[in-house]
Amino acid sequence: MRAAIAERTRKYRSRYEQFGLLYSALAPMRYLATVAARRLDETSDSIEAQLLKIEGAQGVLGPAHRAYSGHSAGENRAIWSAWDWSQRGDEWNDTDEPEQWKATLVDEVLLSNIGDARAILEIGPGGGRWSEVLQPLAERLVLVDVTQRALELCKERLGDGANVDYVLSEGGAIPAVEDASIDFVWSFDVFVHIAPLDVDSYIAEVARVLRPGGTAVIHHSGRLQRFPGWRSPMTALLFAQLARERGLEVARQFDSWSNGRFGVRTNDDVITVLRAPEG
Ligand SMILES: C[S@@+](CC[C@H](N)C(=O)[O-])C[C@H]1O[C@@H](n2cnc3c(N)ncnc32)[C@H](O)[C@@H]1O
Question: What single-letter DSSP state applies at residue 265?
């Protein structure tokens, strides 16, 4: 809580310095409006919302999550194929300190978990803002995306590196990747947008393709409400349960790094570190 207040204060100060008094006076009002809208959404009496809430709180992929029809692979394909990729994903960096946010995420979340991984899988690379970091570390890098556009963008960014495989996914499976062939899985800003059944399907695939002792770092949604951020329904508990059901160990779940200075809290997201049990 204290870290969240400190982060918000830091943001307001930086906005004041950047945009002046009027903007910084309006910013807290916008925040309060967002909280109110979210609260309304939370108390929505739609049966779907109530059932999702109960299942999410209990960590169960029950009928409501199974019937949930938003955030489908088709919807994702349509959105991301038509996306303006001119910033190649850097538009999603934290707005106040984008460079530090990205650099610390790479150091403290990605590199600190990658170990000496040589075979790396990234799910949903988009414009390749993380693939660019992963490629030089990998003997083999497999990039899996639901859009051909993202794979083309990554090819442009990474060149024709012989160590990169580009795989088009139907949305939840990666049959082109062999069992127990991957040391490290990375996915950021992808699971937050995909339907719970596809999340479950990918978790099963992660469990299948990871070598014993391998690690997966997955950024995913941690709430029920779609907005802000067009999030799919998920909770930290449900995600952890799905992973355990597939035989993976949940090493860590968190939403900030750099002693709370940076994080994925703006949209209530979660980062989960999974481990495939040793032989
Ligand atoms: C918001 S972008 C994030 C891109 C990149 N990970 C980043 O952080 O810059 C979402 C990416 O996930 C991909 N995606 C969406 N649904 C997917 C799915 N079911 N399977 C694989 N990729 C998916 C999109 O095509 C897009 O490239």
Answer: G
233 Cβ below 6 A of ligand 1: no
| 171 alpha carbon – ligand 1 mean position (Å) | 10
| Residue whose CA is at the smallest distance from ligand 1 atom 18 | 171
The 10 Å Cβ neighbour count of residue 169 is 21
Residue 196 structure tokens: 């719970």
* Distance of CA 124 from the midpoint of ligand 1 (Å): 4
Helix residue ranges, H only, the chain? 2-19, 21-42, 47-58, 63-67, 73-81, 98-105, 112-114, 131-134, 148-158, 196-209, 236-245
Contact 51, 61 (CB under 8 A): no
90 Cβ contact list (under 8 Å, min separation 6)? 98, 102, 127, 129
Closest CA to 234 of 37, 55, 81, 35: 55
For residue range 222-244, what is the model confidence (pLDDT) as tens digits?
999 899 999 999 999 999 999 99
Ligand 1 atom 10, closest CA? 190
Give the model confidence (pLDDT) of 189-214 as tens digits. 999 999 999 999 999 999 999 999 99
CB 65 within 8 A of CB 196: yes
Instruction: Enter the DSSP assignment of 192.
Output: G
Distance 12 CA to ligand 1 centre (A): 30
The pLDDT assigned to 1 comes to 63
Residue 209: burial class (beta carbons within 10 Å; 0-12, 13-18, 19+)? buried
